[in-house]
Design goal:
24 helices, Rossmann fold, 23 strands, 4 domains, 640 residues, six-stranded parallel sheet
Length: 640
């Protein structure tokens, strides 16, 4: 057996260079490159290996460990999990920063390879800089925190251990049913230790993406349930996009006449104006999808995890509704006591259609009526104007004063109007990305995806800070096309460090900051359940000792300009249209739009409900009223 003497870190990089993925007759490298922020846990061993061993792999410099890992997550999501990035940091705080991004990846079933530096395996310098000492177990380091948020975790304490660890890691990274974050903790001393590795370990290795076929018995049982349906409904989940079953899903809907609703991950698998597309479903859904869902007797979920936002906390559907779930994951397919079809959507949908033998859903105008009613409401939302004394869409006794905000920030735009304007001002093939706050709700309801795979919403973890970092990842994936990040001012403040990376890499990302001087979504939740405003508005502290003063006039355009971005301050629709038009001519420079929008100018719930921890005992009567409403909804929710 021929061997080659390499350090563990050199062997790691050489292995990454030679990993490929194959599916549907296509084969290409699986690992695009490595994003790194050097520190004392990775700058010497892994840093030397990256300099020596990279041939094909790209290497990027990150600015914040969480941000650069989110870039990798968004890249893999946009690439439909067919390509990944690896991310590496130092020990201690650098590693801890990536835990949030690892959780984001795993919650969304997105593959990302996390390579944090670790404390010395030999333990001789203990405690090394940034090491946490647990007196009951000296083997614990910061990297043990990744165990809870990764699909696979390992610590490489000997150089030869790397071989079995990498094979297990790539088994998970290429598994459609069980993928997510993979963490290989790499102690800084072991990174530099050598071993005589078999040369065969570094030969080209092709990971074949298995498309699990449906069982005949499962298809027969599922078809029997669907044939008996009077008002069936399809749900298009992220699995449709990841399996690239776009055409199969559309063909199934058209052949059966079954309308479909979209989850956040499934949106843009089919364009918005398809006559059977009801739009977003659930807590952040629109009226069309929720109206049909409430009457549906059979729900056919394709590639969906049925989060509480999709099911409205299991309240949306009829008590006697039956479920058929097509999912490559057995765990997901068995949810809601469904008839499971455990298979790849691209293979299962045509097989199920053949089993249905000409079945047509007996709808008689309900789909068209629901779509027409929503189209009128969407048009209204896209044209809401502020006037003095404006009553917000989301109103309550503690609502922030729109007039006060308009005075403090010199603004009069509404969030829904701005979203509608951006939606149809950008090109159909451009990609929109978002994650947290009120924007994901407005976007799932309102965003009209005019191109396939042009919607990249991270809502499995709803992680603030994903938006800008993710936009950079999307840009790496889509090349010359434009990406537009929809980000609230709260998320912008929380994490925008990768703007500097975008400047450094000459990557034009468009960042639309919806500046309403508040954490608007959480403020709605807070006051909507009977509470007074507390730490959810960006106001100066007033004379009463509370945050009751003027709204804070943060100039996000100046912040962006300081990084080297092109920036615009937007206070009117003409300014917005002019800025969007001019920005299309800009190349190689990130663009930031500081858009001043009124608080409480987002959308309402459209017949949905979300279960939260309402207060059973309180001195505030508004809390008690909210709890009564909670009990009424809970009794109507499904119990499984």
């Amino acid at each position: 057996m021929k061997t080659v003497r390499l350090t563990m870190a050199q062997a790691l990089v050489r292995f990454l260079e030679n990993q490929y993925i194959a599916y549907d007759g296509v084969e290409h490298p699986f690992v695009e490159g490595v994003i790194m922020l050097p520190g004392h846990g990775n700058v010497v061993g892994l840093g030397q290996a990256l300099r020596q061993e990279t041939r094909r792999l790209k290497v990027w410099q990150g600015k914040n460990e969480q941000g650069m890992a989110h870039t990798a997550v968004a890249f893999a999501k946009q690439m439909k999990r067919k390509k990944i990035m690896a991310v590496t940091s130092s020990v201690g705080p650098g590693a801890a920063n990536m835990v949030t991004a690892a959780a984001t990846a795993t919650a969304n079933n997105i593959p990302v390879l996390i390579l944090p530096g670790d404390v010395y395996a030999c333990r001789q310098p203990d405690p090394v800089l940034q090491q946490i000492e647990q007196i009951h177990d000296l083997s614990i380091s910061t990297n043990d925190a990744f165990r809870a948020v990764c699909r696979y975790w390992d610590r490489i304490v000997r150089p030869e251990q790397l071989m079995s660890a990498l094979l297990s890691a790539f088994r998970v990274l290429t598994d459609p049913a069980n993928t997510g974050a993979v963490c290989l903790a790499i102690p800084q001393d072991v990174e530099g230790e050598a071993y005589d590795y078999p040369e065969s370990f570094f030969q080209k290795r092709v990971h074949r993406l298995a498309r699990r076929l449906p069982e005949a018995e499962a298809l027969s049982e599922a078809a029997a349930v669907i044939r008996a349906a009077k008002k069936p409904l399809l749900i298009c989940g992220g699995g449709v996009r990841y399996s690239e079953a776009h055409e199969e899903f559309k063909t199934f809907a058209e052949a059966t006449g079954i309308p479909f609703a979209e989850t956040q991950a499934g949106k843009s698998a089919v364009v918005y104006d398809h006559p059977l597309n009801l739009g977003g479903i659930g807590v952040t859904g629109c009226s069309a999808a929720n109206e049909i869902a409430k009457e549906a007797d059979v729900i056919i979920g394709v590639g969906t995890r049925y989060t509480d936002f999709t099911t409205s906390s299991k309240w949306l559907f009829r008590e006697d509704a039956k479920f058929v779930n097509i999912n490559v994951s057995e765990f997901q397919a068995l949810k809601l006591d469904a008839v499971p079809v455990i298979a790849d959507a691209k293979r299962a949908l045509p097989a199920l259609l053949a089993e249905l033998k000409g079945y047509r859903a007996p709808y008689a105008g309900e789909i068209e009526g629901a779509r027409d009613r929503w189209a009128k409401e969407l048009c209204r939302l896209q044209h809401i104007e502020y006037k003095e004394g404006y009553v917000p869409e989301v109103n309550d006794a503690n609502a922030a004063s729109a007039d006060r905000f308009a005075h403090d920030l010199d603004a009069c735009l509404t969030q829904t109007t701005v979203l509608g304007a951006i939606n149809f001002a950008i090109d159909p093939e451009d990609v929109a990305i978002g994650s947290a706050g009120s924007l994901p709700g407005d976007m799932q309801r309102m965003w009209c995806a005019r191109g396939v795979d042009t919607y990249n919403m991270e809502y499995g973890y709803s992680c603030m800070g994903y938006e800008i970092s993710g936009a950079l990842g999307v840009k790496y994936a889509i090349g010359d096309r434009d990406v537009y990040a929809m980000v609230g001012d709260g998320s912008f403040v929380m994490l925008h460090s990768e703007l500097l990376t975008a400047v450094q890499e000459h990557k034009k990302i468009n960042v639309c900051v919806f500046n309403n001087a508040s954490f608007g979504c959480i403020n709605n939740l807070q006051v909507g359940h009977g509470n007074d405003t507390l730490c959810t508005e960006l106001r100066f502290r007033g004379e009463d000792g509370e945050h009751s003063g003027a709204f804070m006039p943060v100039d996000f355009a100046k912040i962006a300009e300081g990084y080297g971005c092109k920036a615009y301050t937007i206070r009117s629709l003409p300014e917005l249209y002019a800025a969007l038009k001019e920005a299309k001519t800009i190349e190689g420079v990130p663009v930031v739009f500081d858009i001043r929008v009124l608080p409480k100018s987002m959308t309402e719930g459209y017949g949905s409900w979300w279960r939260v921890g309402d207060t059973e005992v309180s001195e505030n009567p508004r809390n008690l009223k909210a709890y009564e409403d909670h009990l009424e909804h809970v009794k109507d929710a499904k119990k499984y």
